[in-house]
Amino acid sequence: MNLIMANLSTTAKITWCPGCPNSAILVAFRQTIEELVKAGEIKLENVVVCAGIGCHGKITDYVNLNSFTSLHGRALPAMTGMKCANRKLMVVGFSGDGDSFAEGIGHLVHAARRNSDIKVFIHVNQVFALTTGQATPLSPKGYKSKSTPFGSIEEPFTPLPMLLESGATFLARSYANDIANTKKIMLEAIRHKGFAFVEIIQPCITFFDTRDYFKDRLEAVPDNFPAQDINAAREFLSKATTKTPVGIFYNVVKPTYEDELWA
Ligand code: SF4
């Protein structure tokens, strides 16, 4: 292991279920930070990693970086505050779909609207995994769990179109077990100046194993996709399809909240 990777590791025992794709996200993130440090694009001391509550939240224990674990769904206000106070910081947040789209949805929408210069990586497993698999706003209709024993009667919603209309300037999706592609997208998200939102499909292999479901559904965004065109992103993300596109859907530069604030 090289020096940067060794410095990024901690002695904390990994308590995710064996084989959980959260570990793949951790690997992709460590590799991303390593590459950015090697390229001289960031300094380790300027990176802050935040998390909410959920299985994803353990990631702050497993990277040897400045970190902050928030209340449930509240990582984003803390992240925005950090970036406002010190624009040198590279503020990255991890959250789950329960944490973000149930408890934290208001914070997410407003951080996107402000184009706060923070990066948000969402572990999407469509359940509250840490508390044994209850339904989240992304669970499919009919999903059975302890909180929905007869099947969920609610329709799930799709976050990416909502984030696009809220004002996010970088939107992407990856699949956790595709570490190389997740790393590639993380690199672009971190390099982006403004609010970057990445949905990482992360099947919960213990409570809602969707690996087979996604096996033949993932489809890369075409290479020539015009990610600077909001209408193209709007049309692409709202298109009814049996496939799940992965890649970068939207990427534009606009003034950030923090730059406006300090100006
Ligand atoms: Fe991963 Fe699910 Fe286990 Fe949590 S409960 S560590 S999301 S497999």
CATH top-level class: Alpha Beta
Output the number of helix runs. Answer: 11
- Helix-strand string: HHEHEHEHHEEEHEHEHEHEH
Structural category: alpha/beta
Number of E-state strands: 10
The shape, in one word, is globular
Number of domains: 1
> How much of the polypeptide forms β-strand, as a percent range?
15-25%
State the strand order across the main sheet.
2-1-3-4-8-7-10-9
Radius of gyration: 17 Å
CATH architecture: 3-Layer(aba) Sandwich
CATH fold label: Rossmann fold
The major beta sheet can be summarized as:
8 strands, mixed
What would you note in describing this structure?
The chain is of the alpha/beta class and 263 residues long. The protein has one domain: Rossmann fold, CATH 3.40.50.970. The protein contains 11 helices and 10 strands. The chain has helices spanning 3-8, 22-38, 59-62, 75-85, 97-103, 105-114, 159-166, 179-191, 211-215, 230-238, 257-262, and strands spanning 47-51, 66-69, 90-96, 119-124, 127-128, 134-135, 170-175, 196-201, 218-220, 244-251. The strands form 2 sheets. An 8-stranded mixed beta sheet has the order 2-1-3-4-8-7-10-9, with helices on both faces. Strands 5-6 form a two-stranded antiparallel ribbon. Strand 9 (218-220), helix 10 (230-238) and strand 10 (244-251) form a beta-alpha-beta unit. The longest helix is centred in the first third of the chain and has 17 residues, at 22-38. The relative contact order is 0.14. The model has no long low-confidence stretch (mean pLDDT 96). The structure holds iron/sulfur cluster (SF4). The site of iron/sulfur cluster has 11 residues, from loops.
